[in-house]
Design a protein that fits this description.
There is one protein chain. With 309 residues, the chain is of the alpha/beta class. 34% of the residues lie in helices and 28% in strands. It has helices at 28-44, 57-61, 74-83, 96-99, 103-114, 136-141, 143-146, 155-161, 165-173, 177-184, 200-203, 289-308, and strands at 2-4, 16-20, 47-54, 88-93, 117-123, 127-128, 134-135, 149-153, 189-195, 209-212, 224-232, 235-244, 255-260, 271-281. The strands form three sheets. It has a six-stranded parallel beta sheet, sandwiched between helices. It has a six-stranded antiparallel beta barrel with strand order 9-10-13-12-11-14. A two-stranded antiparallel sheet has the order 6-7. Helix 1 links the parallel strand 2 and strand 3. Helix 9 (165-173) packs antiparallel against helix 10 (177-184). The two termini are 35 Å apart.
């Protein structure tokens, strides 16, 4: 897959089969659209093109932009789209100026002139242009003017999936991990660097890796204990994770601490990917370290059962 970070870097194609959207999460609904895009490109001997935007449009145009958390970082989105067999990925920088483009300007200047779009694959509810004024009906009504074929993804097909990035975000924030993973079509994950913490886990026999995520916009699920798998040094490892403020030991600040089963090497400074399998329980305050240790033992056994199944 070829990746372009600017419109100027993209050479117009002879037969571009195009879809566009934010594609946050690249979930099962997105995967269906990408499947149709791929199949259409193959049938017409064209090349598939995905247009997406960065920053996320809501970060630029919405008042609640600081509260928006995303399911995928830029690098994660690129990898997931590549796994879907896309030929070209165009990452258009989304600015205030870009958001003011009319639907006609968007079609003429970007889809036609810059990309060479021959066919557009979109859902019935797809919107584009200033104030989201453009859509399927607009393109259909002006098809003779623009000379773009439209491949519509039927309403029934999209509605049957009942999947949205917002719904997945809410599931993760409610501790509904299995539901979120089902909608994604994979296990939700995040990647970060292992940093030094207070190392209290080691004193009670449960050393933890404090995984710090650098992307401020990456969604971290709700506070609680989870069964997880971690990937580092080219291997997967089973474990459990606590997300939260560690109230029993008067922790300061929110952390993601992973206890990797049967592993006690020094991995400070290393990059770790944490794949979240299931939610075990909410974070809670215990009456001392002995009670905390007893609960962690129970959490470990429950995690092993979940991971084993």
């Amino acid at each position: 897959m070829k990746v372009y970070y600017n419109l100027a870097d993209f050479e117009p194609l002879k037969k571009a089969i195009v879809t566009s959207g934010t594609f946050d999460g690249v979930h099962r609904g997105h995967q269906k659209i990408l499947q149709i895009l791929r199949e259409t490109a193959e049938k017409t001997k064209g090349e598939s093109v995905v247009i997406t935007f960065w920053p996320h449009p809501r970060i630029v145009v919405s008042k609640d932009s600081q509260d928006l958390k995303l399911l995928t970082t830029i690098d994660e989105k690129i990898e997931l789209l590549e796994n879907q067999g896309v030929d070209h990925l165009l990452m258009i920088p989304f600015t205030r100026e870009f958001s003011e483009l009319s639907s006609e300007e968007y079609v003429k200047e970007i889809l036609l002139k810059r990309i060479g779009t021959q066919k557009l694959v979109i859902g019935y509810d797809h919107r584009f242009g200033r104030n989201r004024e453009g859509g399927f009906d607009y393109l259909k009504a002006n098809s003779d003017f623009f000379h773009i074929e439209i491949e519509e993804i039927p309403r029934q097909e999209i509605d049957n999936l009942t999947i949205s990035s917002t719904k997945i975000r809410q599931s993760l924030l409610n501790g509904e991990v299995k539901s979120a993973n089902d909608l994604l079509g994979r296990n939700y994950s995040f990647t970060g660097i292992v940093v030094k913490g207070r190392q209290l886990g080691r004193t009670i026999g449960f050393p933890t890796a404090n995984v710090q995520v650098s992307e401020y916009y990456k969604l971290i699920p709700s506070n609680g204990v989870y069964a997880v798998r971690t990937f580092f040094r080219n291997q997967w490892h089973e474990g459990m994770m606590n997300i939260g403020n560690r109230p029993t030991v008067e922790g300061i600040g929110r952390t993601q601490e992973v206890n990797i089963f049967d592993f006690d090497d020094d991995i400070y400074g290393e990059t770790v990917t944490v794949e979240i399998i299931d939610y075990i329980r909410p974070e809670q305050k215990f009456n001392g370290l002995d009670e905390l240790k007893s609960q962690i033992l129970a959490d470990r056994e429950k995690s092993k059962v979940i991971l084993g199944s």
